[in-house]
Design brief:
The chain is of the alpha/beta class. It is globular, with a radius of gyration of 15 Å. The mean pLDDT is about 95. The protein is built from nine helices and seven strands. Strands 1, 2, 3, 4, 5, 6 and 7 form a seven-stranded mixed beta sheet that branches. The longest helix is centred in the first third of the chain and has 13 residues. It has a single domain, classed as 3-Layer(aba) Sandwich (Rossmann fold).
């Protein structure tokens, strides 16, 4: 059986990068051949949650290859069609809205466009404070877009952040397996 090739794109939900990298490690243990992608901002920005170079080092060590982080680096995903599936984890509300609107102005959105062009699955692990407000329309759009699947998600702090939702990163592997079969992992909404 051939080793499946997964693109793994990380966006700037900096507070969830550690969880996302943990999920990436689990995918590596499952035997996938991983191709790391980072948004330009995530690739270069130090925050109170960690230094960019430390996140880059972790991701490159897990994947065994350099991170693609520019539009021109990811553009060949389309014509070469070498990925079996693309994960965006974490997927910010900004990236979600760009995907829903067909905007391809970053390494991550270009990789999504390339993957969908090839009619291959994309799995989004959402992490955004405005999922139930400003990004709600975009969430509805991607839920109705062929080829896009979501990692089950729920409100992460309904009392203090009532519009915020976050993927259950522990279900990423199951969501990937379901998407490879052409189905959405259920239940989609979970209590966190």
């Amino acid at each position: 059986m051939k080793q499946l090739k997964l693109g793994y794109a990380l966006c700037g939900s900096f507070c969830t990068l550690a969880e996302s990298i943990g999920a990436l490690e689990e995918l590596k243990k499952e035997g996938y051949d991983l191709y790391p992608i980072m948004s330009e901002i995530t690739y270069a920005t130090d925050t109170r949650f960690g230094r960019a170079q430390d996140f880059r080092r972790q991701v490159e060590e897990i994947c065994g290859r350099e991170i693609l982080h520019t539009v021109d680096q990811v553009e060949p995903i389309g014509p070469k069609g070498y990925l079996d599936l693309l994960v965006v984890s974490p997927c910010t509300g900004n990236t979600l809205s760009k995907i829903a609107s067909g905007i391809t102005d970053s390494s991550v959105t270009m990789s999504v466009k390339a993957q969908l062009r090839n009619q291959k699955p994309v799995v989004l692990a959402l992490a955004t404070n405005d999922a139930l407000s400003g990004s709600a329309k975009s969430l509805g759009t991607v839920l109705n877009t062929r080829g896009i699947y979501l990692v089950p998600l729920g409100q992460d702090d309904p009392v203090h952040k009532p519009t915020s939702m976050m993927a259950d990163f522990s279900q990423l592997g199951a969501a990937v397996r379901a998407a490879l079969e052409g189905r959405q992992l259920q239940p989609l909404l979970v209590v966190r």
